[in-house]
């Protein structure tokens, strides 16, 4: 449950050693672990295996408020064969396997709930096969989004999926990440062509066949999209083949203020209906705009606001901007300002990308937790209005920023971890918000994943039968429940 | 194997009754079948159950050359509860279940290889929930592509995926269909938001939770895309929630002739690289253009040709066309002609859509089989040139048409079913073509599916480990192997 974990999240001590009746089992496991560590060292060398407390703690948490759950050991494989050999050892000794990219997740996905072995993939950081004419590239799991785009700098191509953080691309595949420009370029689901995966028993598979990269296929079950979004619970992603896009000739950004949430969302729907191929359309509520103004010394009107971005040729941009400006004006939007130059655009998007820190700055010393519901577009005004009323009624700080073109928005909950009453109120609020989204045909998570905190909500969302199917798939691929146990299901 | 089935396909007799040692087993099954039919009638009434030979034969074949394999009985359920009740009866009596949409498939997917019960879904033909502002709609499995677009006529919305045939939308989901405008709007994989599925034991699940329709989600495993492309082997699709798009303000079509395959494909890559949001970009080789000229009394130059379509505002279309014209000219393209008026556009696309019949008209009395490989864009010139040489060397008729923006093309093989030597040469040719695609990082099927004919090729394409995972998934969801047995795996 989001809240139960939120509560536990705020205790920051590492996992305690078991006591009483569990001691003997622990001691058996401890011996198994020792033998496994020796075997890991024979595969990866001393430098590829770490038992150090600092290293373990660093790998026991992500950027969420979920508390640190360090693994027993961290391994640093350098190639898929090594990942496979290490996984076989874990399989033999029944040790949990937790894949680790950059630790920038937001749902506690890397916590070692049952101890075990963290597979840090940071040493596998090569861009392997770039096919410019085919608009595809294959990367190792340690390659981050920014590293890939920096590699692509002189090719005229880019990988657009942008969750904000400089996450590893295989980590992004794991959580089915998306972000600000999914409305134009899709999410990881639409942009992964093939995956190399090491299963719990060390078997290496290629979801679309080794080295294959057709842009479309009807060849058998869609294994690629079974692993995208599986949050490390079905296998370790060791290679991803991704779709690339031509860098647009020009980009224009714009900002526009609205009298109401409804007016901002109506504009969004109409822009999409008009076929404007908008690249980003981000909503910020009055509280978030206020926070951004303070944090970045800006002076946007403190009212519901859209930040927009257009990609295309200069000529098509003119038209896109002019249609959008007309639509926003018809909906009572004002102060429509657009910018073509890099500097003004960068300033505008910095304000949006700093939303997390701007929110935290509202209450220094506090921590933040981001909700992640997604609903059909037409339900956005109602859910945002109700959610804002809920925040006020419960005296909570939760500025709102959202990928409104997809119906996905975040309340960045700023809370004092030492105030149990507030922690409880945030817990109850996030559950109410998720249920509000479910009642509007939506989902409790648009892009962050289920991780630790949303397992009970997932069950409500999908119903017992679909959950049973998912459990069946998990049991088929990982019968010993070694892959990232305690997550998703 | 494509060829083995191709050979068997041309025997057109219905399935023979078993003889000898199998007779007793057959007689036991026959009794089970009789009891099942009585139970079907109690669920669906007499009019909902057919044992008539004509009806069974009509449901035992699709539009491919695979020979008719009629089911033992055809049922016509009217709602999901009925589908579930009928499936439970099949499950109890261990009878195969074969879902049937419109029978427009091209890989023999509806043949009842082991007899059993065909579930014709034609009576479930309602458009259920249209949400205009949310760009989504939910349809029953009997709703066809054209029926949906006709329903949407006055809404300003449309469903663009267009495989040519007026297939049912759930049938299209089953084979992961796409077609001419996938380059702009994606395939069924990208356009199905949720599915209602009846599993082999009659369990009803909703892949994204009942009634849910967020545009994106990270909530658990992607069950939706596990069933998309599963060709009826994992469950019966009884409802699909689909993404819709705004009808573009304007459409322009164009046609352009090239001195070589390479020049046509180079133009395609450059158009995509330039970020032109092209809606259709179809390649026809010289033989196909010749066939189209004869069939439709046209006079296009008999040389590699691109048919193109642009969607957008009038202003953006001007730019798209002008960029494309420049690119084609730089690649030696000539006779670039574009048309905005409905009539000229319709004439142009009629020529493309008649490709199948134009090919058949090359050799009256013959039958046709379409190959369906898909390779990375840059490999297209080589594979097309080698394939054309192969056709000539083996004295075969196989005009080529392709969705070149996706790297997917079809050889429409026209053959005399009574010439065993030619049948054998076509068999060997299609296998060589598929292996040529596999050697170029491609797939044996871009959009038609595996069905009966490509099972051995699928194994070559994916490798034994990925196949084992697929078999594991199948065994989990359908442990008795009742769902469309003998297909895909």
Automatic annotation (TrEMBL), chains A, B:
GO MF terms listed in the record are: D-lactate dehydrogenase (cytochrome) activity; D-lactate dehydrogenase (NAD+) activity; FAD binding
In the record, biological process GO terms are: lactate catabolic process
Keywords noted in UniProt: FAD, Flavoprotein, Mitochondrion, Oxidoreductase, Transit peptide
Q: Which GO terms of the cellular component aspect does the record hold?
A: mitochondrion
Q: Which Gene3D superfamilies does the record match to this protein?
A: 3.30.465.10, 3.30.70.2740, Vanillyl-alcohol Oxidase, Chain A, domain 4 (1.10.45.10)
Q: Which cofactor does it need?
A: FAD
Q: Per its record, how is this protein called by name? A: Probable D-lactate dehydrogenase, mitochondrial
User: Which species expresses this protein natively?
Assistant: Astyanax mexicanus
- Taxonomic lineage of this organism? Eukaryota, Metazoa, Chordata, Craniata, Vertebrata
Query: What is the top EC class of this enzyme, as a single word?
Result: oxidoreductase
